[in-house]
Design goal:
The complex is a heterodimer. Chain A is mainly beta. Chain A has one helix at residues 34-40; strands at 2-7, 23-27, 50-53, 56-57, 73-77. Chain A has a single domain (2-77), classed as Roll (Ubiquitin-like (UB roll)). Chain A has a 5-stranded mixed β-sheet, with no helix packed on it. The model of chain A has no long low-confidence stretch (mean pLDDT 96). By secondary structure, chain B is an alpha+beta fold. Chain B has 25 helices and 17 strands. Chain B has a 6-stranded mixed β-sheet with strand order 2-1-6-3-4-5, sandwiched between helices. A 6-stranded mixed β-sheet of chain B has the order 8-7-12-9-10-11. In chain B, strand 16 (434-435) and strand 17 (438-439) form a beta hairpin. The longest helix of chain B is centred in the C-terminal third of the chain and has 22 residues, at 535-556. Chain B is globular. Chain B starts with 5 loop residues before the first strand and ends with a helix. Classes of the chains: A mainly beta, B alpha+beta. Chain A binds chain B through residues 6, 8-10, 12, 21-22, 49-50, 52, 54-57, 59, 73, 75, 77-83, and chain B through 231-234, 236-238, 240-246, 248-249, 252-254, 270, 274-275, 330-331, 464-465, 468, 470-471, 474-477, 480, 510-511, 514, 577-578. Chain B: Keywords: 4Fe-4S, Iron, Iron-sulfur, Metal-binding, Oxidoreductase. Chain B: Its cofactor is [4Fe-4S] cluster; tungstopterin. Chain B: Pfam families: AFOR_C, AFOR_N. Chain B: Residues 3-206 form the Aldehyde ferredoxin oxidoreductase N-terminal domain.
C-alpha cells in the first residue's frame, strides 16, 4: 500500500534526498505501524512529539499499535509552538 | 518594588506634561501593564466615548517585570477604547521601547485630549516635552524613527510611532516601535492619529531600581531562564523556526482558514511556511530567512529577520525594501497568504513590510482583503472599483491593496475600515470573519473548537492572544485536549484567559507560557514587587482583570449577543480534514462558560462575582 510520510521543522533532515519538500511517498507493507516508520527513518523518539495521521493526533502510547491504511498521511513534528 | 511609582500624564489639548504618583493600591490589585493601565482607563473615560474623539484616552504602560532581568521583560501595552471594535483595546509589543520607558523612570504615560497640530513626545529621564511634528506628518514609521534619531543626534533613542495609516485613522492601524515590533491589534494607531500624536521618543539611563529582594530576584529569574532554555519549544523550536512553524501543523489539522474561511486547508501552505523560509530560492540561491532576533531581555528569540527576493515584481524597482527586515511571523503569513489564497512567499513579505512601514495590523488587513476577494468573486466588488482584478490567489492584487490601504488611496479607504464595515456597506455583513468587529487570527474554530469560545468571548474582539487554547488542543501544552470536541473547553478557556492576563500585566511575553506556568512567574514577581504575591493572589488578579475588561465592554453597550461567531463557522461545516462535517459548537460552550465565570445568562458578572473580585 502507499502512504505519505511527512517530517517537518528540524526533522526534515531525516527524510531521504528524494523527498519533495517535507513529503515522501512511500510503498509500505500492510500492517505497518506509526512507530515502525518512526524507527525506520531513525527519528529520535523524543523528537517525534506531534504525530498526526490524516491530521488526527496519535498519543505516544498508541503509536506502537496504530496501523496505517492505504493513502494515510503520517506527519511528524518535534516540539514546536507559535502564536 | 518593581514599579517606578511614577505616571506621566500628557494633556495634548493643553500641551502639558505632568508627573503623578502611581496608585499603589491599584498596583496591588491589578499588577501593571494591561491590568493596571486598564484600571486607569476605565476609571477615567466614559465607556460610551467615541474612540476617535478627544475624550478617549490612550495609555502606554509597562509592568513590574518590564526592563528587569526577567526573561522577555521588554513588553509594554497600549490601552485605549478601540476604534475597530468599540470595546476595550489592549495591544502588546516587544522590542526595546517598553524597557526604555522603565529606564526613563516611568511606569506609564497617559495621553488625553487632542493636540491642535501634529506633535511628538520626547522623554529623557525626568524631562518630558511635546515637540512639533509637522515635518514628520506624512512620513512612515521607518522614516519617522530615523528622522527623530537624526534630529536628536542619538541613535539609542527608542521610538514608537504611527505611519500614514495611523494618520489616516485606518481602523486597524498599529503603533510600531523598533521598526518592526508593533502594538498591533484593534486600531490603537488610529487613536494615536486622532490625537495628532505622531510619535513617542524615549531615552532612559536610570536602569531599574527598587527590586524588593534583589538576591531572591536573581535566583528566581536565573531558574526561570533555565526552564526556558531546557524546554524544547522555547529553547529550540521557537528560535529555529519561529511562530511560522505552525503553518504546516495547522493546515494538516484542517484548521487553517483559507479564502475567507471558505476552506480549512490551503494547498500552498507548504510554500508559505517556516520550512519554505529556510529553503534556498531558485532565483538567487538565498533563503528568505536571514536570522532570528530577540526583543529586550528575551532568552527565546523567536523573531524573524528576512530578506526579500530583490528580483520579485513587488520590489525590483524599490531598493529600500531590499535590506533585512522583520517577518514573516505566522499570523501575518496566514492573513496575507492563506486567508486570501496567495501562495507567493515573497509577495507576503512585501505586504508585511508595508504593514510595518506604514503601521497596519497585517491580521486585520489580510483578513479584510480575504473578504474583498470573496466579494469580487461574487461580482459585488468589481475591477472598476478596485483598479485591479482581485481573484483569490492574486499576489498582484494583494500588493496593490496593501499600498492603497497604507496610503489611503482609492478603494484602500474602504479596506481601511476593516471587514465588518466593508462587508456591511456592500450588503454582506455575514462575510466579515470577525467578532465584535475585529478579524480572526489564524485558527479555524471548526477544527479547534476551544478557539471558537476564545474568539467569541475575547474582550478585544477576535484574538488568539487572550486565551491560546491552541497550546492545549494542538500542541499538548500543558496537557493535550481533543480539538474536535467542546467538552471541557469553557473551563480551559477561562483558565487560559485569567493566566494570560497575569503574564500580560507582569510585563513579560506570553510565549514564555509554552514553558512556564504561573508557578514560574510567581517567584519572580514576589521577589520584585512589594507585597505578598502568592499564587492565589495572581489567580485572583488575572480573574479581576478579565472581569474589569468585560464590565467596561458591557457598559459600552456590548451584550451576550455580541459573544458570537459569523454564521459561516456555525452553519457551514468544514469541507476537508479531521473536522470535515463539523461546525463550531459555540452554542453549547457559551452558557457553560458564563456559569464557570460566575456571570448571569446575559453575560454580566453577578453581584457575587463582582464582590468577590472587589469590582
Amino acid at each position: 500500500m502507499r502512504i505519505a510520510f511527512k517530517l517537518f521543522a528540524s526533522l526534515t533532515d531525516y527524510l531521504p534526498p528524494e523527498r519533495k519538500g517535507n513529503r515522501l511517498e512511500l510503498e509500505v507493507e500492510e500492517g505497518v505501524t506509526v512507530a515502525d516508520l518512526i524507527h525506520r527513518y531513525n527519528v529520535p523518539e523524543r523528537s517525534a512529539h506531534l504525530v498526526l495521521v490524516n491530521g488526527v493526533y496519535i498519543p505516544p502510547a498508541e503509536r506502537i499499535r496504530h496501523r496505517l491504511k492505504d493513502a494515510d498521511e503520517l506527519a511528524i513534528w518535534p516540539p514546536v509552538a507559535g502564536g | 518594588m518593581g514599579w517606578n511609582r511614577k505616571v506621566l500624564r500628557v494633556n495634548l489639548t493643553a500641551g502639558t506634561c505632568t508627573e503623578e504618583p502611581l496608585n499603589m493600591q491599584w498596583a496591588q490589585d491589578y499588577l501593571g501593564s494591561r491590568g493596571l493601565a486598564t484600571k486607569y482607563l476605565v476609571s477615567e473615560i466614559d465607556p460610551k466615548v467615541d474612540p476617535l474623539s478627544a475624550d478617549n484616552k490612550m495609555i502606554m504602560a509597562t509592568g513590574p517585570l518590564t526592563g528587569t532581568m526577567a526573561s522577555t521583560g521588554g513588553r509594554y501595552t497600549v490601552v485605549t477604547k478601540g476604534p475597530l471594535t468599540g470595546a476595550i483595546a489592549c495591544s502588546n509589543s516587544g522590542g526595546f521601547f517598553g524597557a526604555e520607558l522603565k529606564f526613563a523612570g516611568w511606569d506609564m504615560i497617559i495621553f488625553e485630549g487632542k493636540s491642535p497640530k501634529p506633535v511628538y513626545l520626547y522623554v529623557e529621564n525626568d524631562k518630558a516635552e511635546l515637540r512639533d511634528a509637522g515635518h514628520l506628518w506624512g512620513k512612515s514609521c521607518w522614516d519617522t524613527e530615523e528622522t527623530i534619531k537624526h534630529e536628536l543626534q542619538d541613535p539609542l533613542v527608542r521610538v514608537s510611532s504611527i505611519g500614514v495609516a495611523g494618520e489616516n485613522q485606518v481602523l486597524f492601524a498599529c503603533i510600531v516601535n523598533d521598526l518592526h515590533r508593533a502594538a498591533g491589534r484593534s486600531g490603537v494607531g488610529a487613536v494615536m492619529g486622532s490625537k495628532n500624536l505622531k510619535a513617542v521618543a524615549l531615552r532612559g539611563t536610570q536602569g531599574v531600581s527598587g527590586i524588593k529582594d534583589f538576591r531572591a530576584f536573581m535566583k528566581a529569574t536565573t531558574e526561570a531562564k533555565k526552564v526556558l532554555a531546557d524546554n524544547a519549544v522555547t529553547g529550540q523550536g521557537l528560535p529555529k523556526y519561529g511562530t511560522q512553524v505552525l503553518m504546516n501543523v495547522i493546515n494538516e489539522m484542517g484548521a487553517l482558514p483559507t479564502r475567507n474561511h471558505r476552506d480549512v486547508q490551503f494547498e500552498d501552505a507548504g510554500k508559505i511556511s517556516a520550512e519554505a523560509m529556510h529553503e534556498k530560492r531558485e532565483s538567487d540561491g538565498k533563503p528568505q530567512l536571514v536570522t532570528n532576533a530577540a526583543c529586550f531581555g528575551c532568552t527565546i528569540a523567536c523573531g524573524r529577520i528576512s530578506e526579500i527576493d530583490k528580483g520579485h515584481f513587488t520590489v525590483k524597482n524599490s531598493p529600500k525594501y531590499w535590506g533585512a527586515s522583520g517577518g514573516l511571523e505566522y499570523e501575518a503569513a496566514w492573513a496575507l497568504g492563506a486567508a486570501n489564497g496567495v501562495g507567493d512567499l515573497e509577495a507576503l513579505q512585501y505586504a508585511n513590510l508595508i504593514c510595518n512601514e506604514q503601521g497596519m495590523d497585517p491580521i486585520s488587513f489580510g483578513a479584510t482583503v480575504g473578504a474583498v476577494m470573496e466579494l469580487y468573486d461574487m461580482g459585488v466588488i468589481t475591477r472598476d472599483m478596485l483598479g485591479i482584478d482581485a481573484p483569490f490567489g492574486s499576489a498582484e492584487a494583494l500588493a496593490k491593496m496593501v499600498e492603497m490601504t497604507a496610503l489611503g488611496e482609492g478603494f484602500g479607504k474602504e479596506i481601511g475600515q476593516g471587514s465588518k464595515r466593508l462587508c456591511t456597506k456592500f450588503g454582506h455583513p455575514e462575510l466579515s470573519m470577525s467578532v465584535k468587529g475585529q478579524e480572526f487570527p489564524a485558527y479555524d474554530s471548526r477544527g479547534i473548537q476551544g478557539m471558537g469560545l476564545t474568539y467569541a468571548t475575547s474582550n478585544r474582539g477576535a484574538c488568539h492572544l487572550r486565551s491560546y487554547t491552541v497550546a492545549s488542543e494542538v500542541l499538548g501544552i500543558p496537557v493535550k485536549t481533543d480539538p474536535l470536541t467542546t467538552d471541557g473547553k469553557p473551563e480551559l478557556v477561562k483558565a487560559f484567559q485569567d493566566a494570560t492576563a497575569v503574564f500580560d500585566s507582569a510585563g513579560i511575553c506570553v510565549f514564555t507560557s509554552f514553558a512556564w506556568t504561573l508557578a514560574d512567574v510567581q517567584p519572580q514577581l514576589d521577589a520584585a514587587c512589594e507585597g505578598d504575591w502568592s499564587m492565589d493572589k495572581l489567580n485572583e488578579v488575572g480573574e479581576r482583570v478579565w472581569n474589569m475588561e468585560r464590565m467596561f465592554n458591557n457598559a459600552a453597550g456590548f451584550t451576550a449577543k455580541d459573544d458570537n461567531l459569523p454564521p459561516r463557522l456555525t452553519t457551514e461545516p468544514a469541507k476537508t480534514g479531521p473536522a470535515k462535517g463539523l461546525v463550531n459548537g459555540l452554542a453549547k460552550m457559551l452558557p457553560e462558560y458564563y456559569q464557570v465565570r460566575g456571570w448571569t445568562p446575559d453575560g454580566e458578572p453577578t453581584a457575587e462575582t463582582r464582590s468577590r473580585l472587589g469590582l
